Amino acid sequence: MTSRLNPYISFDGDARQALEFYQEVFGGELALNTFGEAGLPDASHADKIMHGMLETPGGFTLMGADTPPEMQYTPGGNFSVSLSGDDDADLRGYWEKLSADGTVVVPLDKQMWGDVFGMCTDRFGIPWMVNIGQAQD
What SUPFAM superfamilies has UniProt attached to this entry (predicted)? Predict the structure, then answer.
């Protein structure tokens, strides 16, 4: 296997819903493992996600999990998940789905550097940046 870099997002009890939402956005195969399947003795957390991985037809990998009960959940942080490329239709489709029921921080629009760019926070509190590269004249 070659090396890869991908986001691993922590959630506060809604990892299943978030990862299923991302599967709706991007398509692909979603694998979910619960704390109960791993033998965690805390019954209140048995159905929560210990590890989830979405692998999409477009080559994206997104991982996530619920924060274990013995750890403190810290929302946000200084990060954004960035999507970029030149497939206008795909990237606009992702934008529409990610920003629906979320908060648009920077509307998806042409920017001074020539690309179309936008920033939003999805309904799970995850910040996203979308950059659609434009052909250089």
Answer: Glyoxalase/Bleomycin resistance protein/Dihydroxybiphenyl dioxygenase
